[in-house]
TrEMBL record:
Transmembrane segments: none annotated. InterPro entries: FAH, Fumarylacetoacetase-like_C, Fumarylacetoacetase_C_sf. This is Fumarylacetoacetate hydrolase family protein. Belongs to the FAH family. One of its GO terms (biological process) is carboxylic acid metabolic process. It comes from Aeromicrobium endophyticum. Residues 78-279 form the Fumarylacetoacetase-like C-terminal domain. Keywords: Hydrolase, Metal-binding. Residues 1-26 are annotated as: Disordered.
Length: 286
């Protein structure tokens, strides 16, 4: 099952990704219309959706990726994990962490899968990431039980303004990663049962067609189940909560010399089985 948001309303996406059906309309108002309402009733919704017979060809609206928003646009909590790939820690010259370094990206940075990202400075970097959305409240959940609390997976970019992120005696990770448009996600949420191996998905980022990141979620230091276990041991994870799971090696700031995004650059991010998102960089003066 694939779920997206369009004009603020939750929609089901056809298996071929070509059309959508409004969830509230299709369920006669039982679920939705807002995404958080679907996640709050996740068990009941998935039971209904698995048995619903929807003729997308007859009643669906054509998909326009530019009209879609982030799959969970109003999470109660947003978690972002730093330094979670061994190759990224290696390129940064840092030791592997013993526990997940956690920060946040504020919801004002959320955006849909296709659009523009305004560059507020000359040091904006790319970070391709697998994003997890919680479907069932997770409180003191073990890694063995973690996947059953996940609604699904989507693609994200953790755009980062490095100068602000690393400024001051206490780095400003959350602020440097939360400019408008710095957290595009999509194109939709894919439920875990639709993914062949959720623990080992190919991740790729291209800038102007050049591959700059290429890895697999199988190289995560802290896997998705481990992240759910560690986070839920501290506080409950709520339906609709979003977790950015970290980025692999290949970021611009770790290159010699450093490489950052410029006006007109096109950033494309793909994850195996989840689709692709695409952002065009625009100078702040435009």
């Amino acid at each position: 099952m694939r779920i997206a948001t369009r004009s603020g309303r939750s929609v089901l996406v056809s298996p071929d990704g070509s059309s959508t059906v409004d969830i509230s309309d299709a369920s006669d108002g039982r679920f939705g219309p807002l995404a958080h309402q679907v996640f709050d009733d996740w068990d009941e919704f998935t039971a209904w959706a698995s048995g619903a017979s929807i003729d997308f060809a007859a009643v669906g609206d054509p998909v326009n990726l530019e009209d879609l928003g982030s799959p969970s646009p109003r999470p109660q909590q947003i978690f972002a994990i730093g330094l979670n790939y061994r190759d990224h820690a290696d390129e940064a010259g840092l030791d592997y962490p013993d526990s997940p370094p956690v920060f946040t990206k504020w919801v004002g940075s959320f955006a849909g899968p296709v659009g523009r990202v305004v560059l507020p400075a000359a040091t904006v970097d790319w970070e391709a990431e697998l994003v997890v959305v919680i479907g069932r409240r997770a409180d003191q959940v073990s890694a063995a039980e973690a996947w059953s609390h996940v609604a699904g997976l989507t693609i994200g970019q953790d755009f980062s303004e490095r100068a602000l992120q690393l400024s001051g005696p206490a780095p400003q990770f959350s602020l440097g990663k939360s400019y408008p448009g710095f957290a595009p996600q999509g194109p939709w949420l894919t439920t875990v049962d639709e993914v062949s191996d959720p623990d080992d998905l190919r991740v790729e980022c291209r800038v102007n067609g050049e591959i700059v990141q290429k890895s697999s979620t199988g190289r995560l230091i802290f896997s998705v189940p481990t992240l759910v276990e560690r986070l839920s041991s501290v506080l409950p994870l709520m339906p609709g909560d979003v977790i950015f799971t970290g980025t692999p090696s290949g970021v611009g700031g770790a290159r010699t010399p450093p490489r950052f995004l410029h006006d007109g650059d096109v950033v494309e991010t793909t994850i195996e089985g989840l689709g692709e998102i695409r952002q065009v960089c625009v100078a702040a003066s435009h």
